């Protein structure tokens, strides 16, 4: 069946009015304040924990943030309070879930909504062996009916948006028609937002890291998906590493999601936030100063310093003193006095900020 015939056969997904212009689409946070998915930070394992998200929120006041993937099984058997913990300042923030059992995912989504998350996202894009062994992640693209059942169960369980993060395809199932059938099936279950990593996933032969780089990017296919499904919200993810490219893509899709680029260079994320939402970029020195205040509170509560500072490596990426900053963070002394070490880091940060100001002048 051709894509054109697929489009002719499907009934309208929604009887609502035509979608708002891409940059104007909004949803409401729990507080009732308008928020947007125009700019977001991807869920990244071992990256976007609550400390990372707190720092990124200081840098980018409007970006939509996502947790690391949390499996539905972990929420059922593990320390739910720890897994779902986040600071209120992180809003808007989404919980990303992994799983393939509708009942288990519904229970996990209910727990996430009760904890206060603004969105529940289902991972249909991770290619790791561990995820495949659990029969979820990117492998689920081959089972759109199961994904639809999961989405329907989650939507029934919560009153916040349920979204899906996916790939273009898996292995040799990578045609545009394959992608359209997946999106069509899941959309009929009520999913209105698809976050599309613009690469397919190779489930055998490539590591998760290689799957982020080796399969070629295809932004044109994501743009086409938006054109063919105008009533859906389509967010582009994958390979967005500079401000100009990200801003240009917003002429074609509803939003852009940055991953490693935001983590490795948070100043880039801050510039994008400022450009999209119309404000002056948050100075990195101000963001670091407020984060150090947060770190002091966390240390007092028992958090180890390294858990807090490991997310700051990119604060001076590509700027004078950046290498010295990374070296100091990676060689933190093993001391019982984390407060003293934090004070030294704070002093170094301000010295680097002043050095960068002189450099820019």
Set out the fold topology.
Blueprint: H1 3-9, E1 27-28, E2 34-35, E3 39-41, H2 50-59, E4 65-71, H3 72-77, H4 80-84, E5 93-98, H5 102-115, E6 119-124, H6 129-133, H7 144-157, E7 162-167, H8 176-188, E8 193-197, H9 208-211, H10 219-228, E9 233-237, H11 243-249, E10 255-258, H12 260-264, H13 266-277, H14 284-300, H15 305-309, H16 322-330, H17 338-360
Parallel strand pairs: 3-10, 4-5, 5-6, 6-7, 7-8, 8-9, 9-10
Antiparallel strand pairs: 1-2
Helix pairs in contact: 2-14, 5-7, 7-8, 14-17, 16-17
Descriptive account of the structure:
The longest helix has 23 residues, at 338-360. The protein contains 17 helices and 10 strands. With 361 residues, the protein is an alpha/beta fold. The protein folds into 2 domains: 3-277, Aldolase class I (TIM Barrel, Alpha-Beta Barrel), CATH 3.20.20; 284-360, Four Helix Bundle (Hemerythrin (Met), subunit A), CATH 1.20.120.1460. It has an 8-stranded parallel sheet with strand order 3-10-9-8-7-6-5-4. Strands 1-2 form a two-stranded antiparallel sheet. Helix 11 (243-249) links the parallel strand 9 (233-237) and strand 10. Helix 5 packs parallel to helix 7 (144-157) and helix 7 runs parallel beside helix 8. It is 46% helix and 13% strand. The chain has helices at residues 3-9, 50-59, 72-77, 80-84, 102-115, 129-133, 144-157, 176-188, 208-211, 219-228, 243-249, 260-264, 266-277, 284-300, 305-309, 322-330, 338-360; strands at residues 27-28, 34-35, 39-41, 65-71, 93-98, 119-124, 162-167, 193-197, 233-237, 255-258.
């Amino acid at each position: 069946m051709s894509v054109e015939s697929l489009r002719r056969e499907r009934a309208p997904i929604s009887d609502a009015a035509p979608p708002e212009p891409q940059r104007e689409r909004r949803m409401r946070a729990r507080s009732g304040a308008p928020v947007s998915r125009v700019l977001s930070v991807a869920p990244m394992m071992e990256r976007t924990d609550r400390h990372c998200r707190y720092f990124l929120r200081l840098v980018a006041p409007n970006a939509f943030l996502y947790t690391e993937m949390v499996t539905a099984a972990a929420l059922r058997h593990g320390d739910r309070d720890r897994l779902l913990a986040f600071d209120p300042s992180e809003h808007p923030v989404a919980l990303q879930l992994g799983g393939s059992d509708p009942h288990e995912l519904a229970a996990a989504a209910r727990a996430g909504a009760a904890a206060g998350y603004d969105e529940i996202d289902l991972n249909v894009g991770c290619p790791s062996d561990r995820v495949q062994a659990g029969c979820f992640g990117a492998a689920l693209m081959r089972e759109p009916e199961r994904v639809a059942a999961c989405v329907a169960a989650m939507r029934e369980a919560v009153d916040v948006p349920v979204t899906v993060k996916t790939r273009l395809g898996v292995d040799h199932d990578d045609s545009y028609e394959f992608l359209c059938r997946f999106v069509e099936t899941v959309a009929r279950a009520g999913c209105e937002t698809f976050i599309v990593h613009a690469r397919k996933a190779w489930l055998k032969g490539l590591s998760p890291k290689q799957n982020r780089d080796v399969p070629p990017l295809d932004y044109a296919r994501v743009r086409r998906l938006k054109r063919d499904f105008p009533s859906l919200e389509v967010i582009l993810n994958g390979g967005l590493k500079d401000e100009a490219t990200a801003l240009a893509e917003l002429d074609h899709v509803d939003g852009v999601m940055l991953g490693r680029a935001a983590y490795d260079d948070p100043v880039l994320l801050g510039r994008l936030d400022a450009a999209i939402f119309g404000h002056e970029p948050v100075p990195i020195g101000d963001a670091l100063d407020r984060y150090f205040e947060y770190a002091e509170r966390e240390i007092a509560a028992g958090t180890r310093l390294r858990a807090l500072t490991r997310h700051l490596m990119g604060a001076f990426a590509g700027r004078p003193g950046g290498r010295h900053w990374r070296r100091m963070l990676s060689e933190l002394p093993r001391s019982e006095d984390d407060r003293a070490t934090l004070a030294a880091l704070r002093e170094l940060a301000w010295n680097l900020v002043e050095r960068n100001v002189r450099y820019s002048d």
